[in-house]
Amino acid sequence: MSASNDLYDVVVIGGGAAGLNAALVLARARRRVVVVDAGEPRNAPAAHMHGFLSRDGMPPKELLEAGRAEVAGYGGEFVADGVVSVTPGFSVALSSGRVLSTRRILVATGLRDRLPDIPGLRERWGDDVMQCPYCHGYEVRDQAVGVIAVTPESATHHAQLVRQWAADLTLFTNDVDVPAEERERLAARGIKVVDGKVARVVVEDDRVRGVELADGAAVPRDALFVGGDWEPRDALLRSLGCEVADGWVRVDGQGRTSVPGVSAAGNVVDQKATVIAAAAQGAMAAIAINGDLVAEDVERAARERRVYGM
User: Fold this and answer.
1) How many other CB atoms sit within 10 Å of the CB of residue 124?
2) What is the pTM of this model?
3) Nearest CA to 262 among 7, 12, 24, 95?
4) How far apart are CA 228 and CA 15, in angstroms?
């Protein structure tokens, strides 16, 4: 590995689809790039990913392995480590004690799903308990499906969305308030509403079998979706003073944050980005970063020519 005081063009923090695609574009642009990854991908529990052209159904782990191999083939470097802090300049301090110096930062650390504290739910997460219907709805099509409400804002929207894949659909309110007008809209599409606190997810033979309520009633279900509630892993971006709006760090159309030299891509700044969308955001951010570096290189070369008559 390189010495701790070596200068990189770009340090990419996070080795998911966004970070790896950014690193691929930058390495192909002949930039010195290193990917720092703690090895905690959001979709690790999922057996397959979907909606990615030419990669539909591929296990997420295989996509990351292929991506790392491609980046390494162009000279990109990897460090399996966590990031403790980033200071302007930029210095990236790692958990191991190593410090990386870099001209630019790209943060692609993703988000974490905040799951309700319901016994049995987390254990089945990524199997037959899911969040994204675009990622997994087709696989449970025409089955008996349930949606467990998490927030008032997402509850009915999520149920109406999942209805596209399953006619036998039940919304478990889990004590979330569902207004009368929303109940009417749910009924119009044949979506049943079950009130009351969810006590547990019933699991038998390594499969979801239903939902049990606090009053002991049980509703058979084959699969469950949990309405979205997310937490971006953006502590590094916030520590650098990046502008935040509505709970998320703001970026422009090319991934630039409000702090010069700091970019971000993927779920850390966009909760709705699927794998292919996150990869595309990483590519766009990398192109913008390289453009900024080219402009900086030009100015440096022109300045040196004036000073030294080169």
Assistant:
1) 18
2) 0.91
3) 12
4) 23
